[in-house]
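hiii so um. not sure if this is the right channel but i have a protein structure encoded as tokens and i wanna go backwards to a sequence. like what aa goes where. can anyone help
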């Protein structure tokens, strides 16, 4: 009988402890659910501070650098290159001899032309003398009009041949002068396309022998701008650009021309924009690829926040799709409506009540913090304390 009473007593105690444990777990579960549904924990989120600074809205494009005032030097006569007197990067002056063709052929042509002038002059002298001797006879009636016309024709023909021979002399002297290839401008030799002993032929088209840049202290960029952006580019607009050779240096240029003729490649339409690029330090070289950014809009000394903060939302909150950000108020997230200005794609200008530089704003969920926030009891009894009903894990983006 005593054993039965003792067993009943232990059973009552066990049931009492089980009831107490059930009440504790139920209260714990209610607190967890309430905390997920009503009061988000700010430590579960990534934060940043509102900054004050400058921002630019830009259009990006690529282009190639070239020297301003580039001249291609060719030859008007054919022949064999006898001397090349300049090389790459040499500075030359206007009229300086750059190369010479073999002059023997040209000198011989001048001599032959001058000999033709002497011969034509002698024939003209003889024809003139014959005409002058027979003219009085015609006037006295001893010669017919047909006969005196023959003498006059011979004289004029000889005169024409003399003039033609003299013109040939001028032409051959010009060819001799052109056999010495001279620089048309003061500048720098960028390209040399000939070697000694090479034969050049100018009968069909003028071959290019040298390329000379007038001034490397001023360069220009031929940039290709997409048709969707060309309306935002204007003459006189400023642009910043970089080149691969100096990735840490920023260069500046000004739009000088917008060419209206479009270029279409694979159904993509672009327009060529010319930018003037000063090059006083000589770092920029012809042919370099430049990545340019045209400044479309600019704001200075404004409050700035990342676009991630503007796009962040708390589940279960009625945002009404209004633009706003979440700030910390007493350690808890609070939404503030804002108006936005220009953006560069990652950062945006904002205006809002009580916003100052340094204000902390939410910009995303802190996954590591959320996953490690469950306590010891939740690890022991995950089914009871693992979160709100339905398997939710609290506020989500």
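sure thing!! here u go:
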């Amino acid at each position: 009988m005593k054993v039965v009473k003792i067993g009943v007593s232990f059973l009552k105690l066990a049931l009492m402890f089980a009831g107490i444990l059930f009440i504790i777990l139920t209260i714990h579960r209610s607190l967890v659910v309430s905390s997920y549904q009503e009061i988000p924990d700010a430590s579960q989120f990534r934060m940043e501070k509102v900054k004050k600074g400058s921002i630019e809205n830009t259009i990006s494009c690529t282009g190639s650098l070239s020297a301003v005032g580039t001249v291609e030097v060719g030859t008007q006569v054919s022949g064999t290159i006898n001397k090349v007197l300049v090389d790459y990067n040499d500075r030359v002056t206007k009229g300086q001899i750059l190369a010479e063709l073999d002059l023997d052929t040209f000198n011989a042509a001048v001599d032959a032309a001058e000999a033709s002038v002497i011969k034509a002059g002698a024939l003209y002298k003889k024809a003139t003398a014959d005409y002058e001797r027979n003219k009085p006879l015609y006037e006295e009636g001893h010669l017919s009009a047909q006969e005196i016309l023959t003498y006059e024709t011979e004289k004029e023909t000889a005169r024409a041949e003399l003039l033609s021979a003299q013109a040939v002399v001028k032409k051959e002297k010009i060819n001799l002068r052109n056999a010495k290839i001279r620089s048309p401008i003061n500048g720098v030799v960028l390209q040399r396309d000939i070697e000694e002993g090479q034969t050049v032929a100018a009968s069909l088209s003028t071959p290019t022998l040298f390329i000379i840049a007038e001034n490397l202290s001023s360069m220009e960029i031929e940039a290709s701008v997409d048709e969707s952006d060309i309306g935002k580019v204007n003459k006189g607009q400023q642009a910043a650009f970089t080149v691969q050779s100096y990735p840490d240096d920023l260069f500046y240029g000004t739009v000088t021309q917008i060419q209206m003729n479009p270029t279409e490649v694979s159904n993509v339409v672009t327009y060529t924009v010319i930018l003037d690029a000063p090059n006083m330090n000589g770092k920029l070289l012809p042919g370099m690829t430049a990545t340019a950014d045209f400044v479309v809009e600019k704001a200075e000394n404004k409050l700035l926040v990342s676009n991630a903060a503007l796009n962040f939302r708390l589940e279960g909150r009625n945002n009404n799709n209004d633009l706003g950000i979440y700030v910390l108020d007493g350690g808890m997230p609070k939404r503030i409506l804002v108006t936005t200005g220009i953006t560069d794609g990652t950062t945006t200008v904002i205006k809002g009540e009580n916003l100052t530089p340094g204000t902390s704003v939410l910009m995303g969920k802190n996954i590591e913090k959320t996953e490690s926030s469950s306590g010891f009891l939740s690890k022991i009894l995950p089914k009871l304390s693992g979160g709100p009903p339905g398997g939710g894990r609290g506020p989500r983006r």
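oh and The radius of gyration is 46 Å.
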